[in-house]
Amino acid sequence: MHIRILGAAAGGGFPQWNCNCPNCGGVRREELNARPRTQSSIAIRGADETAWTLVNASPDILAQLHANPQLQPGRAYRDTGIRNIVLTDSQIDHTTGLYMLREATKPWPLWCTDSAFDDLTTANPILQVLRRYCGVDRRRIDVAGEWFAVEGSEDLRWQAIALPGKPPPYSARTPQPGDVIGLLVEDLRTERRLCYAPGVAHIDSSLFELMSTSQCVLVDGTFWTDDELVRLGVSHKRAADMGHLSQTGGMIKWLDRLPATTRRVLIHINNTNPILVEDSPERALLSSHSIEVAYDGMEIVL
Ligand code: MLT
Ligand code: MN
Ligand code: ZN
């Protein structure tokens, strides 16, 4: 299985357009040893090099496709290597890119949970809008954990992991299972697994067990500390309020308990997080725990 990191930043990207925090200001002025990153999205494929599944559709999708020509096989005047779309939630940073994919020549096979579908047809009715363009062929992700396969990549199987989380701020719904999911993706040829969870409020023993049976975990790297935004004075929200387990609030400890051979990669990194600076002490600490930090264009082969 091939995994391409299209965008490794959290909502807002890095630098964020209106942010002058030390990270955003520093990378904008090219004073920091840090790479800009676009908003959260990955693409996964099995043996067929032309059949990718887009996991989350970032507002930066057009720039991401331009930067990743592997996703454009060029077989016809109108073509794409994206065969399917899978969503882990209905957040703005994971869904707005769907608007940019409206020129597709056929309805998008779009996999999401009932609660994400609800948000995307009511409070943020992007799927209704798309009906007037390419159309959407909605496929239901069962939060009870039934395995599913996406068309064109039958050598991969997928399973949703219901995670603790919340509906997006724009949605007035009461929280329910399926608001936020992680994904287990297994390559049936090699039996190697990826555990992808860009938003995790906390880790429990059942999630940890799934992480432990994966060869790579690609998990929530949003915040270094729970009070990161509060301390910078840019928000009153703590990481936990936003559904994110910070690195110092427990993520590093959980990752330490994984088998030594498991690849640990943080993704969905907020622009305020000091780990974005390659020569920061926080980054050095991660390295000493064998934890990697995802970047745009990173490829993981499992
Ligand atoms: C999140 O992951 O917490 C959200 O995407 C934040 C946002 O709306 O940008
Ligand atoms: Mn997000
Ligand atoms: Zn910033």
From TrEMBL:
UniProt KW keywords: PQQ biosynthesis, Transport
Among its keywords, does the record have Transport?
Answer: yes
- Asked whether the keyword Repeat is assigned, the reply is no
Query: What biological process terms from GO does the record include?
Result: pyrroloquinoline quinone biosynthetic process
Q: In which pathway does it act?
A: Cofactor biosynthesis; pyrroloquinoline quinone biosynthesis
Residues annotated as domain Metallo-beta-lactamase: 52-269
Q: Name one Pfam family in it.
A: Lactamase_B_2
InterPro entries reported in the protein's UniProt record: Metallo-B-lactamas, PQQ_synth_PqqB, RibonucZ/Hydroxyglut_hydro
Function in brief? May be involved in the transport of PQQ or its precursor to the periplasm.
PANTHER family xrefs: COENZYME PQQ SYNTHESIS PROTEIN B, HYDROLASE C777.06C-RELATED-RELATED
Family, as annotated? Belongs to the PqqB family.
Q: What is this protein called?
A: Coenzyme PQQ synthesis protein B
The protein's organism comes out as Steroidobacter agaridevorans
